[in-house]
Amino acid sequence: MAVLTNSKKPRVSFDRSIERMREQLAELAPFLGKGKPTRSLDEFDFDAEQLIGDLLGQTSDLLHAYEYAELGEAAGLVNMTDEAPEGTGMDSQRQSLLQRSRVLESCISELEARRSAEPKKTKVGRTLIGPQVAEHMSPEIRSLSQDATLQEAGQLMQKWKTGSLLLTDKQSYVGFITDSMLAREVVANGLNPAATAVKTCMRKPVVAIAGDRPIIEAVRLMKEQATRHLAVTQDGQILGVISVSNILRYYSGVV
């Protein structure tokens, strides 16, 4: 008696899952003005959440990212309130819809990555999923000596139009400071910015992520470390910085 094999089932399953996710993404287009929606946005969101949960798991970071996108609040990507993200110049409703679109695109990328990695079980844990951190980081490394004053730090942030600075001990990067940390410390503790060293307020050590990791991992690390800025590394060397603003630009379709 012949024995039927099911060796092709995983591939068929992934193909169908990707097709379903693409159909969901296509159904979002009318809400962005590309046609007339056939149902309410609430119904669409409910189905999208169900689909992501079914295909990627209820604990998937992408499911959380989609839920944040629904809120229409950019700060929701990382559950903190210490720093307002940079604006993108779009109305909040359209921005939220574009964030949904980006999340669904990332879901498709993850499913495609899982499909291609299926025969290589030993490499699944390091499979690249979606866009990489280095593709959306700020390549300019803005730094300052940890012995400089808070006033100098504030002046450089204003000059360079950046929300954070890496701090050095003249040999390596030892920490960082953000504009919100700067303002909070000065106001709350009554510090004299012209006479106080920036190292008294810096966060250390530097929280970093490899540039070849998926953006969704940067979101997760920001949550875990309660920070909105990560140094981006390659072979142990810092080559840029990614912030919540960079991530929001990606999820909003602004590059």
List the main descriptive attributes of the protein structure presented here.
255 residues, 2 domains, 45% helix, CBS-domain, three-stranded mixed β-sheet, single chain, 8 helices, alpha/beta, disordered N terminus
Major sheet attributes = 3 strands, mixed
Structural class: alpha/beta
Q: Percentage of helical residues? A: 40-55%
Mean pLDDT: 81
The total strand number stands at 6
Multimerization state:
single chain
Beta-strand residue fraction: 5-15%
Number of structural domains: 2
Following the backbone from N to C, one meets helices and strands in this order, namely HHHHEHEEHEHEEH
**Count of helices?**
8
Summarize this entry quickly:
This protein has 255 residues and is α/β, with parallel strands linked by helices. The chain contains 8 helices and 6 strands; from the N terminus they run ααααβαββαβαββα. The protein folds into 2 domains: 120 residues, no CATH class; 116 residues, CBS-domain, CATH 3.10.580.10.
